[in-house]
UniProtKB/TrEMBL annotation:
This is Protein kinase domain-containing protein. It comes from Ranitomeya imitator. The keyword Transmembrane does not apply. PANTHER family: RIBOSOMAL PROTEIN S6 KINASE. The keyword Nucleotide-binding applies.
Amino acid sequence: MGGHPVGMLSMGKAGLSPRKTCLLLNSAGYKAGGEWESAADIVRDSSCAAVGTRHLTMALILYSVLSIRFYTAEIVWFLYGHNIIHQDIKLENIMLNTNGHIRVIDLGLAHDGVTSSNNIFGVTVTFHFMAPEVLRKKGYGTAVDWWSLGIVVSEMATGRSPFYIGSISKMAYRAITKGKPEIPSWLDADVKHLIKKLLCKNPQHRLGVCGNIREHPFFTTISWEDLVKRRARPPFIPFRPVLENHVLQWLEEKKALLPVTGLSYVLPSWAR
C-alpha cells in the first residue's frame, strides 16, 4: 500500500494470533503535515495577526481554485489507483505528509476488489457523506466514493456541505435522496459543473463511474503524469514551527522501551 505515489498509510509491522490480527502503521509519511482540515485552521490562525483577516490565508492558500484543483486531483488519483471502496472520504480522513501531498486514512470501512459493476450492501460511512443509494439501502459500488468527493469539493470551495447537515435525520435523508445540491452562483463555473456531476443521484450516471473524471475541464491544467510521480508542487507545504506549536510534539529518535517482536512482517526501516 505504501508504494503508491498518492495513497494510503504504509504498514510497518504485522502479526497474527489465534484470536487477533496486529497491524502497526507507519505514520512517518504524514505526521508532519497533520490533518488537512487542521492544517487549514493553523495556516489561517497564524496569519491573522499579520494580516488581520481571518479568512484570507484559508482562501488564498488552501482553498483557492488552484488548490482545490490540486487536492481534488490527488484524491481522484487515489480513487483510481486502488481497487477499493473507501466508504468514508471526507476532510477529516485526508492528511498531509511532510511535502504537502495527501494521505487518505481510516480504512476501517474499506472494501477491496469492488468495481462499478459489482455491489456490496450495508449502511456505513458518515451519515452526511452517504450517497443516495446507500441511504436507500440498495447495493452500491465505487460510485459512493465519487459522491463523497463531491461533498468534499463543495466544502473546500464554499466552506459547507451542499445539503442539510443538521441533526434532524429525516431532513438530511430527504435532502440527499431528493433535493438538489445548494451550489452558490459565484463559484468558478468548472467547480460548479464538477460538483453537480459528482452529486448525480443516479450512480450509473455519476462522474467517476460514467466518463473519465480526469478529462473534466476542471483538470485541464493538471499533468497527471507529474501528479502521479510527485513532480507537481503542492500549494501548501506544512511548516514545522507553526505545526509544532499547535498540534504536534516533536520527539527525539529513541529506541522503543518495549519493542514488539515475533511479528510476521517488519518494514525494513523498522528492523533495528
